[in-house]
Known about the structure:
A: 381 residues, alpha+beta, 10 strands, B: 221 residues, Rossmann fold, six-stranded mixed β-sheet, four-stranded antiparallel β-sheet, binds adenosine-5'-triphosphate, ATP binding (chain B), P-loop_NTPase (chain B), ATP-binding (chain B)
Amino acid sequence: xxxxxxLYRRVPALLMARRNLSRNKIRSGLAVLGIIxxxxxxxxxxxxxxxxxxxxxxxxxxxxxxxxxxxxxxEGIEELSERDVAEIRRVxxxxxxxxxxTDTGLVxxxxxxxxxxxxxxxNPGALYxxxxxxxxxRLRQGVLVGSGTAEILDAEPGNTISIDGRTYRISAVxxxxxxxxxxxxxxxxxxxxxxxxxxxxxxxIVSSESGQAANESAIAIRESLNEREERVNVFELQAITxxxxxxxxxxxxxxxxxxxxxxxxxxxxxxxVMLMSTIERRQEIGVLRAVGVQRGDVIRMILAxxxxxxxxGGVIGAILALGAGIxxxxxxxxxxxxxxxxxxxxxxLLAVGFGIGTSVLSGLYPAWKAANERPVEALxx
Amino acid sequence: xxxxxxxxxxxxxxxxGGEIVEALRDVDFHADPGEFVTVMGPSGSGKSTMxxxxxxxxxxxxxxxxxxxxxVTDLSDAEMTTQRKQFIGFIFQSFHLIPTLSALENVEVPTxxxxxxxxxxxxxxxxxxxxxxxxxxxxxxxxxGGQKQRVAVARALVNEPRILLADEPTGNxxxxxxxxxxxxxDEIRREDDVAVIAVTHDPQITEYADRTIELVDGRIQ
Lengths: 381, 221
Ligand SMILES: Nc1ncnc2c1ncn2[C@@H]1O[C@H](COP(=O)(O)OP(=O)(O)OP(=O)(O)O)[C@@H](O)[C@H]1O
Ligand SMILES: [Mg+2]
């Protein structure tokens, strides 16, 4: 006896259900199609939301863990002092503090030249990674060149360049910053802080290990530096990322809500199909009852039919949704593998669950109706 | 008491919106194991109604139904279903086979819900006994009328009932085919000690019967 036969023997409702569905293949097929569309709508809209969110967070990078402190010009404060920086270092939690002195200048290498932003930093390693060469912990000599600048100058580590007349050896070319950054290195150079004119700092970047640490640091900095007067502006990028995440959360719920409507429509069509087929089979069900099949078994049989429609629609819908997700992600993110995320599988699972749930729910009334008809009535034509 | 089924003072009334139809009037009836009883009478005289009450498909308005000596008049739907499965086999005029199932599966239907490991074996044996051993996997639309009725007989017997109820079992068959079904009934009641109660207009059935009762206007004559 084959595995299927075995299953049918153990769950006879399934056998009856399977045969009944094959009786009118077009009708069953259309009911399944409804579920497929509903499941596909929910799952692929959910995954669409994930794709948007992934795209956006790629743009944003890790800025959620950064805070920026700048002097409050409205209070007449033009730069941050050594004392301010020391105070910031003292109060932050699990963070590295990078004080930045900014200027612009002309960079030349041989015949090539370009105007760039010059960042003076003591410890750029806290913010940047090298694409080529090495970023030292303490920058005392040499220069770090942003990827864009390096390309214009056709420069690589070991080359010498001159910045506003001063000559430097390149220690590293920095990795390209993909996301948003307040001290974007791509079209800049980073030099030792003493080499930039001035005594104070234009801004201080606090790079924390987590969003939580960034948040706590921001609170501590405000409390200590802005105690008497509003000396500094503390800008938390986390606020932006949180807002964006919230937005995508709402967007996703909305999209899934739209998808659910199509499932409700599918549910109504299953209700209709099941009702018609139980009315057509009135006499047969009467015979079943007459030969000793219990009410509960009739209910199980009809629910199994509805469930099978749901499972078929759910499985096909899930496969199509996965295909749609792969197509979407290779189109939008250029990364089809981005489809295989836990959230996406949760959306598919949710959609399939909804699909099967809707089907079974729609089968309840026809099942109840068929099971409660008295066999004598059903057998008399 | 040796009656396998008994009706005592059974009344069945239908309220058809104001007018009350009395389908059975004070019916007393019994059948013993191995007995072949036919029920005759004009159309509308209450024959099917009586058969439904005997088969626990319907409950009497008044009176008592005894099955194997036990009062089954007031059982719940689930209990009646269980009793039907255990004691009673039905054969209908229009066969009422399930079109999507094969002959063998149709015979198995009464055993389907519930753990019954020997059901397939019994169904196969029964189909062989009614002469359809070579048609096990045919669907009803691939069988002739007489063959369908024989599948229905096998289905009625699969749970080894004590009573076989047939409502015009030969009504849709020609004389010859009808006779072969009746021979089958005769064999069953002799060999298996099953009580056969058949409703009919067909006079040839009475040749097979031990007893014929006549219903007129819901009353046994
Ligand atoms: N559900 C019902 N509602 C109202 N009246 C009914 C119902 N069922 C049966 N009757 C009535 O009961 C009477 C007996 O019906 P029954 O079906 O038992 O007759 P019958 O002897 O089997 O007739 P036939 O030979 O035509 O099959 C008829 O007058 C019929 O109209
Ligand atoms: Mg009748």
